[in-house]
Design a protein that fits this description.
five-stranded antiparallel beta sheet; Phosphatase 2c, domain 1; alpha+beta; flat
Amino acid sequence: MTQNFTTSVQSNKKFRGIKNKLQLYFSVYLLLTALIIGAIFMFYEKQERIENITDLLTQLHIDIQTLSGVEKDFFTYETINTAFFETGKSEYLDIRTKKLYDIQNGLIVLKNRKELRNEDIDKKLFKLKKSVGEYEVIFERLVQIIQRKGHKDYGKVGQMRKFIHKIENSDLPFKREKLLMIRRHEKDFMIRKEEEYINKLSLAVQDLRAEIRETIQDKERQKEMLDLLRNYQYAFLDMVDYEKQIGLNIHEGMRYQTQQKAYQIADIIAEINKAGEVQAQEITYRIKYTLGAVVLLCFVLGMFVSYLISKKLSLPVRQLSNSIHKVIKNDFSEQYSIKPIITSDEIGWLSKDFGLMLNKIQSSLQETKEKSEEIERSQVQIMDSIRYARQIQDAVLPTESELNEYFLDSFAIYKPQKVVSGDFYWVYRKKRKTFVAVVDCTGHGVPGAFMSMIGQTLLNKIIGQSKIYDPAMILEVLHLEIQHALKQNEGKNDDGMEVAICAIENTDLGKQVTFAGAHRPLYYVQGGEFLKIRGNNRSIGGKQKQENQQFVTHTIHLQAGDILYLTTDGFADQNNPDRAKYGTQKLTQFLEHIKEHPFATQKIELLKEFETFKNDEPQRDDMTILGLRV
């Protein structure tokens, strides 16, 4: 009996030893830490799943936009591509099919995600799937109708050409001008898509039919010609029917239906995105509340365990704790260290370990501080370099006083999106000609600034050294120089620029202005009338489908006091808080509205209009507007 009692007391002392108590307390702490870490991981995992769904909705919206762009390219290029009508194959349709497959897969993935699902979102997903299906049916039918309508020697257009060419090539006597009138009405309809030319063509066909009956006496040949004419008219009417189904203008036909259906799909995705954001916020709030409750519970339990440790462990632990707090309070300063506790138990080991840990933390903090200071110095140097680059860029741009040396009056609005700009404007005098250009390089910031310096150097070289003075030829040579300078034929770069360039000289008729544009127009005021010349639909540099299209030089004659405006697209492409762009048409109207004002007032009004429109939205692109009074 006595022996059993003694064994029990020894066992109890062993259990109440410092080592066992610390093991118990630290086990509790580890459990609390695991709970907090687990709750945090659960929070971030759910947050990540929610973000993945949001990204998926964003990708669906991007895919729909891409799909619309591919379809636009199809209607622009393939409907006049004979290879498409010959083979029925199109790279645009192949790309569209793949993109549609991605959209359908995205819908399937979205449907299988349960995190943000509710009855409202399920209805919208069903509506979205249905709209995508309807959209595909309409588009496939539209492609079939386009193929049936044909182009050149294919489809109904090809039949028309075959019948009319047989009539044209016949040696029978009839008035050819009546046949030419039919072809003219046919061409007018193909270009203008107006129904009045259908009636005009029918009347012209009746007139030619009467002419054939009157002038051709051979009944068999007469019947052959009348049959050809009838077949031509039937083919024309079938072609007209196809054009009507496709849509004679942007507000009718199947192209309008596909456009509206695409808008509907985009709206549904926006609604799903909005509903998903609301649902995601609710889930996020619930997760945060749950996490807060877990943290609070762990805090309460931690306080209880801390109380036990503070109460149960003796003075060495309190000394160690006070020493640690003092070090923490002084932000782990190297002037403070853990006061060693000389004991042979776990507290002594712990004191030693804390001392080692503090040394490592202090060493790491010092290393981190040094790295942070180095990074800060590097950032300052980079920003100083960029600001100096801005000074260099400003220095090579002509000032308004320098512009006024070449023109009666001028103003320049030059507003980079970042510190340095991808836009620049340029003036050069050679052989009694004044050359002026406004250029928008690919990108903005530092990459755009490098492109702008290349552009200025090449323009000076083309005119000053190569002595090329025709604006269209300047653009052609600039295009080749950019490709060569950036090794674009090797596929290393695809950057380029949009350019509006004028050459101005005095003639007997006044001021002769020759203009060429690469994706940029020229606005001008002639005799008080506001006018516009479009540039070529082709840019400078990079690989382009429009390279076979030559740049065109336009010539106008102005009088002293008339105005030229050259702009980049930064003003027109700026969006407001509603994500709506200012637009080229609105900019044109505003320039026309202020054209009679003095240039100083025009500059103020343009800047005021720009700031008012964008409101608190960040500037989207570099902006340059140049006004010149010749």
